Amino acid sequence: MAKPTLLLIDGNSLAFRSFYALINQVDRFLSHEGLHTNALVGFNNLLDGIVDPFQPDLALVAWDAGKTTFRTEKFDNYKGQRDKTPQELVEQFEPLREMVALHGIKNYELPGYEADDIIGTLATKGATAGYAVTIVTGDRDMTQLVSDDITVWVTKKGISEVDHYTPAMVADVYDGLNPKQIIELKGLQGDTADNYPGVAGIGPKTAIKLMKEYHSIPELYARIDEMKPSKQKEKLIAGEADARLSRELATIDVDAPLAINLDDLKYQGIKYEELVPFYQHLDFKAQLVKLANMGYVISTSDEDTTNSNMTTVELDVRELSATNLTAIENLGSEVDFYLELDGENYHTAAPVAFVIGNQTNGYFASRDVELLIEDTPLKRILTDEQVKKNVFNTKALVVALSRLEINLVNVNFDLLLASYLLDTNDNQNDLGALAHENNFFAVQTDEEVYGKGAKFQIPAMDADLFEHLGRKALAIGSLAKPLFAKLAEHAQLDLYQTIELPLSFVLASMEIAGIKVDAERLLQMRSKMTERLAELEQRIYQQAGHEFNIQSPKQLGVILFEEMGLTPLKKTKTGYSTSVEVLEQMADVPIVESILMYRQLAKIQSTYIEGLLRVIHGSDSKVHTRYLQTLTQTGRLSSVDPNLQNIPVRVEEGRRIRQAFVPSKPDWVLISADYSQIELRVLAHITGDAAMQAAFRQDEDIHAATARRIFGLAEDAPVDAEMRRQAKAVNFGIVYGISDFGLAKNIGVTRKEAKAIIETYLNEYSGVRAWTEEIIEFAREHGYVETIAHRRRYLPDIKAKNFNQRSFAERTAMNSPIQGSAADIIKIAMINMQAALEEQGLEAKMLLQVHDELIFEAPAKELTQLEELIPRVMDSAVKLAVPLKVATHAGKTWYEAK
DNA sequence: TTACTCACG
DNA sequence: ACGTACGTGAGTAAG
């Protein structure tokens, strides 16, 4: 019969190991109450990974009771050099014990003794009583306890893996010595961590050699006369007292006066119900998901809201088919709806399955997408203005449904959008992950259910798929109320209801419309470019003396800075930097000129010509970008597949790419409309700076006006181009959260000069100075900053001890309200614009947004009307203390619409 | 996957 | 003294 088992865990050493394993991210493991949890996370994984599969009969976690032990009495410097335990760890000790208890394991500590001694004593007792003993620790010294009955598991780097020390393993690692002799080794070597000396000049190698010959320290000194005279012998004689003391200190006490017996250590098993609130307290999302999936009830209530929405994991999902369609006619006036696609690009991905329903009447799922298309109650609900829809990602759904010719209306709650507005930091595109962030755990992430990469697969079993989809719908439905409450608390209901949600529909139409790309034109460009690149390539090989991969910064670095002996001006993490700013400083070297040109053309070729050709839809010769509405930290949009917000414009070569963007119909034109200086106007508005506001009210050239101020010119003095250039850089710098270093680098002056310029600027625009100070103070006090439309950005690093992190947060505090308010404005303009076009019965369509610019296509005959309408709608989007200014340009291609 | 480079506002 | 401009996406190389 197998022996009963006793598991002994070294709490202190494992807590330290866990803590330091995640020390780099210590500030990322913070509970909502501000408790650090990195050691708790590591320790929890350890308990789950070891105790759970182990199912011991007896178990104990031993802790150190305090600083003074019998060892400090013998040697008052014991552990003397050790740094004070960091506060971030100290605060985790109490919860660690609580966690151990909830895992069904006894905690124990004994004043005057270390955890080692408690373990040593119980291990010995256990072995005698016939238990198979296992010790888990982060401290290899414990291997001195190893015997036939006692195995010691020592964590390796990263704590998740352990080495199993048996007598054979000890012999293997210590060159044939037995476990008890580890004490002798420590006696000779000492221990820097515990701060006891050993014999000066004896290290691990010598110690092992000596013990192989003399077996133990007492025997060594008994036989020391046998030793031939040597430096080593002298050291041993001089260090005898230290050796004997160190040996004593290294010896684990196996007879500590414990107040507990083996009987007290019965393993209780995990107390799941009690773990739920405990994990909630610590914000252990992943653990809560695990428990939810095991069927434990988790409340979604949040301590800081009054809402207490209890959700059980019981779920009612039925399969929907043509025969029971009538069931959904009785769902009522509010439904949760989710449509699963087989890919992330909703313009092309195929619908896989859907789920509809609500908590009151249950959920219905089906793989039969045809059910949506035909004239069924489903389609009627989705297109019914009277039925509220709760969804995840309105825009994706609108586009996907529009491909099925379903016009989705009356979206009430969008989980993705609402979560993004509440906290841009935890923007996730996975419904499950987002639900977890919002304390709803009865749903898994797609990765958990579908796998990822090559393993991605939608479950073949209806039951599995429908369960997952049902839970998604349930998550959406359950979170509507609490998230609306939070939006209200943040004064963001308006932002959600009048800006972001309507914008989803506007963006969907723009994406669906797409923009036509002249593939022929791109193909012409490509063949020309191929020739030019081939020529350049040959020239570069000649200049270098041999062939190499020009596109490899690593190989290029070797050519320039080793073979050709040029001076490297900047380094990256991995080697020499070969970026434009570096190469431009040595541009009179012929090969460098060639490389800069090659890079420019290669970029145009691969990213724009070939990149665009790849994404043109065969059906309509258009590209249909996707705007990511819930990604940026500032509230801007971003654009992918393709990115139409970074089409070249600054350099003529690249700008010609725009010749390939054309209207979708003959006799139509493209019109671009851009806000002039929107960010600086926003700056003038929110800082309330009188001088800057006056400049905009008088429609002055703002950069020239700034140049006059920072260079002390008269009000009507002419401003030369260089001064204007510098002033422009300063204006930009202010928007970015200026630093003297950044400005100096940008305009090529010394840091000191830059500092002086900034100082003058802030004196001249004193409202700006006051505001920058105020906004940083606001961020410190509230932990976030916001835009004119109450878009919020949290800045946890504003209080960071690390100078860099803190400085970055301070610059962000200045930049985000400006960039974000500009984003608010153009979003409002887009919604109004869409409405105005409809109202006026115009054929014109809004196609693209590029942060401060909108691009339309329209019949040429509407041009005159649009040239009045577009600027009027855009500049009246919001009322600021300064006017907004919009310029329009029209042409047969995007290139000409400048 | 990460680093580098470079396109845009 | 610290080491910096803000916000993005995509292609290529190389581990």
UniProtKB/TrEMBL annotation:
InterPro entries, sorted: 3'-5'_exonuclease_dom, 5-3_exonucl_a-hlix_arch_N, 5-3_exonuclease, 5-3_exonuclease_C_sf, DNA-dir_DNA_pol_A_CS, DNA-dir_DNA_pol_A_palm_dom, DNA/RNA_pol_sf, DNA_polI_exonuclease
SMART domains assigned to the protein according to its UniProt record, in alphabetical order: 35EXOc (SM00474), 53EXOc (SM00475), HhH2 (SM00279), POLAc (SM00482)
Gene3D superfamilies per record: 3.30.70.370, 5' to 3' exonuclease, C-terminal subdomain (1.10.150.20), 5'-nuclease (3.40.50.1010), Ribonuclease H-like superfamily/Ribonuclease H (3.30.420.10), Taq DNA Polymerase, Chain T, domain 4 (1.20.1060.10)
Name used for this protein in its record: DNA polymerase I
Alphabetized NCBIfam families for the sequence: pola, PRK05755.1
Quaternary structure note: Single-chain monomer with multiple functions.
GO terms of biological process kind: DNA-templated DNA replication; double-strand break repair
Keywords from the named record: DNA damage, DNA repair, DNA replication, DNA-binding, DNA-directed DNA polymerase, Exonuclease, Hydrolase, Nuclease, Nucleotidyltransferase, Transferase
GO MF assignments: 3'-5' exonuclease activity; 5'-3' exonuclease activity; DNA binding; DNA-directed DNA polymerase activity
Gene behind this protein: polA
Broad EC category: transferase
5'-3' exonuclease domain: residues covered: 2-268
Pfam families: 5_3_exonuc, 5_3_exonuc_N, DNA_pol_A, DNA_polI_exo1
Family that this chain belongs to: Belongs to the DNA polymerase type-A family.
Domain 3'-5' exonuclease: 318-488
Domain DNA-directed DNA polymerase family A palm, first and last residues per copy: 654-862
E.C. numbers: 2.7.7.7
Catalytic activity: DNA(n) + a 2'-deoxyribonucleoside 5'-triphosphate = DNA(n+1) + diphosphate
